[in-house]
Amino acid sequence: MRVGVLGAGGRVGREVCRAVADAPDLELVAAVDPGMAGIDLRQVAGIDAPGLQVASTIDELVRAEAEVAVDFTVAPAALANLRWCAQHGVHAVVGTTGIPDEAVEELRGRFEQSSANCVLAANFAIGAALMTRFCELAAPFMDGVEIIELHHDGKRDAPSGTALQTAARVAAAREAAGLGWPPDPTEDLVLPGARGGRAPGGIRVHAVRLPGLVAHQEVVFGAVGQSLTIRHDAYDRSSFMPGVLLAVRQVASRPGLTLGLGPLLGF
Fold first, then answer.
1. 229 marked ligand binding residue
2. Catalytic center residues
3. pTM of the model
4. Cis amide bond preceding 263, omega within 30
5. 258 labelled as ligand-binding?
6. 178 is in an annotated binding site
């Protein structure tokens, strides 16, 4: 399968280039990053890719006859890239976060009308997908929940896409059980925002940004006399690569737009 990487010069993009190049059933045929255009990919990602230079525009995917594009850019660029992929019949695997819900629905319509498919996930770590699933299972049996997500200090969006997706899935599981959450008893906010932001279902989300972190999240459930904490830690961006490669291999067989890794893992 012929693969192009969008955002190839970024921290995750470089990892994707290396992972694709190392996979015996995949071929890295294009790398796109306007900030590094013209640079040999060996210098950018440290891989042996003779003659492969970083291109400046997504049109390189046509020249390279790429079948799948992997996008780890920023939200505005990713949205334009996905529209392009739907129009040009190139399957897309997307880990870029911060894309608004209304834009996701627009993309769903575009890929439903396209010969190409799309897998869009806020987090490609398989452990993170399992964390979300475990939280869904716990939601009907506990009396309250809050989410703390922790990321590196270069992350642009807050809260993370993983936190928002987790909150949405937990809220849906709670609602499906015919249950709500007790009201927040806080009456006096000494510091504005101290209780975090409200995600789907009114679930409180707290975002931490610090040097040295990569991607971490803990979901804390509470009930009378007990608590349950479900936590996932990604210590290195290589942890995302098994999920990315899984999506690359499956995207052609999943019509339209697929949200999250769960469907690829069977839940």
1. no
2. 151, 155
3. 0.88
4. no
5. no
6. no
